[in-house]
Design a protein that fits this description.
single chain, about 375 residues, alpha/beta, Aspartate Aminotransferase, domain 1, Aspartate Aminotransferase, domain 2, 7-stranded mixed beta sheet, 4-stranded antiparallel beta sheet, 15 strands, binds pyridoxal-5'-phosphate
């Protein structure tokens, strides 16, 4: 039974409109929510415009065309239609997992500083959260998921393990070989969620997706998002991939028309637009290199990221810097509620946005140091 008293609230990045009003700035640069700064693929925009004319009709409740497109996209993994479920953002898939597999007093294992939605979902199902330590060195820029700690925390009550790979807000990855060893070593009745919302950026740096592991491990669910590299966060689409029996269970928990038709068509067009994907990855790489080089020049520490964001360490309560940047119309993400009060997360924007960020950060740091 879900917990109606759960006091969970997710704090999204501040909106541009709010910052414009509050700080009386005419231009706002939003680097807070790991969105693709290029805007959606033009093909997706045009298809959405056309689709508006049919909004008197219900959407395809089975998302058949989108599932087929995803199957084709991942053809080397030989997925069947029944291996895929589409959600209203990948958050909906995470929520369906909670509602399907969690009940009161079940245990859920989550890493420290992990994506907060895992906690929200577990709390709402009255499950007990077992938060495990991560690998840390005496260096603020090193912070990776600790699979040994996760394994050591497994009990007879463990039902679900959530792992984001790459992780948010730290941006780090677990090597796929290491993940495979871990999966081999744990009880097969535990559902392991591998959240790959940022996987395209990691693959661009040579990392491997866990999709390779689907055939060998019947207990894993991989989630993917259209909100990051595919640039349609506002339309809300994501998907899950797993064994047919798990997908069937998840499907039985969802609303019949959970994904609207515009989101479906935009997702299809975004997947097809390989040039948009390449351009987005290339711009992200160039801008990542620019930001990190500039941070290095000033000896500012950050966590090496496999994503479209960088988590920067300031050595002091970073809210001063966050506020200072807001006054200049630049929105970052404070990480106090992730247990990282001395860090801020910056989404990699366009080169102009990144330059503006670095310029204003330098001015602020001169004042605070
Ligand atoms: C690790 C991770 N998983 C899932 C999501 C949710 O994405 P979606 O927009 O597809 O619901 C996010 C969004 O920030 C994320 O960072």
């Amino acid at each position: 039974m879900p917990n109606p008293k759960s006091t969970n609230t997710y704090q999204p990045g501040l909106s541009a409109e709010l910052v414009k009003k509050k700080y009386a700035v005419s231009k706002v640069v939003k680097l807070a929510s790991n969105e693709n700064p290029l805007g959606p693929s033009l093909n997706a925009i045009n298809a959405a415009r056309q689709e508006i004319l049919s909004l008197n009709r219900y959407p395809d409740g089975k998302c058949s065309d989108l599932i087929e497109e995803i199957r084709v996209y991942h053809k080397k993994y030989k997925l069947k239609t029944k291996n895929i479920i589409i959600g209203n953002g990948s958050n909906e898939i995470l929520e369906l997992i909670g509602r399907t597999f969690l009940a009161k007093n079940d245990e859920v294992i989550i890493s420290k500083h992990a994506f907060l939605v895992y906690k929200m979902i577990s709390n709402s199902m009255r499950a007990k959260i077992v938060e495990v330590n991560i690998n840390k060195k005496n260096d603020a820029s090193f912070m990776t998921v600790n699979l040994d700690s996760i394994k050591d925390s497994i009990s007879s009550k463990t039902k679900v393990i959530f792992i984001a790979n790459p992780s948010n807000p730290t941006g780090t990855i677990i090597d796929s070989k290491r993940l495979k060893e871990f999966l081999k070593s744990i009880p097969k009745k535990i559902i392991v969620v591998i959240d790959e919302a940022y996987i395209e950026y990691a693959c661009y740096r040579g990392h491997k997706s866990a999709l390779d592991l689907i055939k060998d491990f019947k207990n894993i669910i991989i989630t993917r998002s259209f909100s990051k590299i595919y640039a349609i966060a506002g339309s809300r689409v994501g998907y899950g991939i797993s064994q047919t029996d798990i997908i069937q269970k998840l499907n039985s928990m969802r609303q019949p028309f959970n994904v609207n038709q515009i989101a479906q068509i935009m997702a299809i067009k975004s997947l097809k637009d390989k040039k948009f994907l390449r351009d987005s990855l290339e711009i992200n790489k160039t801008c990542y290199e620019y930001i990190t080089k500039e941070l290095d020049k000033d000896s500012i520490k950050y966590i090496d990221s496999y994503t479209n964001f960088i988590t920067i360490y300031f050595g002091i309560d970073a809210s001063v810097i966050f506020e200072g940047l807001l006054k200049k119309g630049i929105i970052l993400r404070p990480l106090k509620n992730y247990g990282l009060p001395n860090y801020l997360r910056v989404t990699i924007g366009t080169m102009n946005e990144c330059k503006l960020f670095i310029k204003n950060l330098r001015i602020l740091l001169k004042r605070t140091r």
